Amino acid sequence: MLGRGRSDVRRQVAVAGAWLVVGACVSVPPGGYPGGGVREPASLVEVAPAAAVNALGERVLLVATARDDGGRPVPGTAIEWVLVAGSAVTIDAVDGGDGRPARAQGAHRAASSVTAALPYELSWDGDDVLIGVGQTWCVVTSAAAGDSDVLVYSPQTPDRLWGEVRARCSWVDAAWEWPLAAVSDTGAPYTFATRVVRARDGAPLAGYVVTYEVRPGVPQAAFGGRAQRLVVVTDVDGVASAELIQRRPETGWNDVDVTIRAPAGEGGAPGRVLATHVARVTWTVPRRRD
User: Fold this and answer.
1) Which CATH number characterizes residue 249's domain?
2) For site-directed labelling of 223, which of 14, 32, 50, 286 has its Cα 20 to 30 A away?
3) pTM
4) Burial, 216: exposed, middle or buried (Cβ in 10 Å; 0-12, 13-18, 19+)?
């Protein structure tokens, strides 16, 4: 399974004219949809993630939070979403606020939503994302590699400086397959393998830099039996492998931080971080063979 940022893209967006509907399931609490309520002034707007690198074609969920002077979330705050860079980037969907699809503007380059009055769960890429009081969301995607800025602001904030924020979303023509959680015999080496391919056609990508770092703990293990950290470059098959060896046979597990970087830039400068992951191997006593 090829990784696309945080998780695989499985949701589809239905587009009918200028109406956008996100393929997400919302649990509506008693009393109505959480986007309702009386609008109140907010003094600060935040957005998460503030920056993200994504595989080409991946849909990215942005969550905005409106807060008052005391840092408390403010429900019923109008939020505007505007794409200010990246000609191939579009708004795929936006929080409708009352259970109806939201209307996009300017060929899907802008949208509006309202922060929630009650918390609810948004089913997103296999996970349940909590949308809290004072929060609202938007989904963006890109058909081409490159960077884009999403301007997020509330026209209700008295100071535009605090009521405006930008999210930087980047798309790369690459997708990745992480090492799967595995079970291995104690005392036997285990090989982690990460694969990087071109997103648009699945062709393997060589030259991408993969860093493996085993977290401290018990049982003790190291790459090649010596190193806690190992840097590997993907080969012609797009694969970067690392062999983890226990210092002595013990049951338990080891977690390994895996980071993928783009190929080095001019002058050998490190490429940008594309994605991170935690892989786990569980060590068990080998079964006796009669």
Assistant:
1) 2.60.40.3450
2) 286
3) 0.69
4) exposed
